[in-house]
Each structure stands twice: as C-alpha cells, then as structure tokens.
Amino acid sequence: MSKRVLVIMLVALNLALLAGLILSTYTPPQAFAQGLNRSGEYLLVAAKAEQTNDAIYLVDLRTRQLHAFRSTFPRAGGEPIRVALIHSRDLVRDFGGVH
Asked: Where are the domains of the chain?
C-alpha cells in the first residue's frame, strides 16, 4: 500500500469520525411551553410563525378555545411591538367534542 493511499484512508477515517461526533452531539431546539402544573385555566405556547416573526397561542381550558396572536410585522426600529389577535378556534367543534 502506497503512502498516498494510506493518507487518503486516514483523511477519510477522520472525516467519518468527525461526522459521527457531530451527529451524536446534535440536539433539536427546545420547545418552551407552560408545564402541566398550571395555576389557572390557560395554557400559553410561543412558536415561530415565520423566519422573522413569532406567534403566541393561548388555550382557554374553561371555554376550550384556542386564540392565536402575532406581532405586527414589519415594524420600524424603535417602534413599540404591537400584538394583535389573528384568529380564534373552538376546539370542541374542531375535534368533535373530545374532552
């Protein structure tokens, strides 16, 4: 086996080990939401709506409705962030009365 073939095999082995290291240490991004030990009748979840804009989902457990809020976008620098109700859904109607 020539020296050149040996160097190419070692480089390939190092690249394979590097790929394995990267794949074994990757963790998907965390989702932040309110835990199950809630104190009220609402759940609040934040999610990415677009690449540069987020959405807030509010679940009213008493009335079983889902409300979606988004900030106004685009906005000029220094302008305050305004959050508006985008849409509401009746979860009982949407899911056929499943409790």
From this structure: 42-94
Q: Could you report the per-residue pLDDT of 53-98, keeping only the tens digit for each?
A: 788 999 998 888 999 998 877 767 777 878 889 999 998 898 886 5
Instruction: Please indicate whether residue 89 or residue 1 has the higher confidence score (pLDDT).
Output: 89
Contacts of residue 91, defined as CB under 8 A and 6 or more positions apart, other chains included, come to 59, 64, 65, 66
Beta strands per DSSP E along 2-95: 42-50, 53-60, 65-71, 83-90
The predicted pLDDT at position 23 comes to: 86
What are the tokens at 80?
Answer: 């305050």
Contacts (Cβ under 8 Å, ≥6 apart) of 57: 44, 45, 46, 47, 66, 67, 68, 69
Q: Tokens 């988004």 — which residue?
A: 70
Cα 96 from chain centroid (whole Å): 27
Structure tokens at 7: 């160097």
Q: Which amino acid is at 15?
A: L
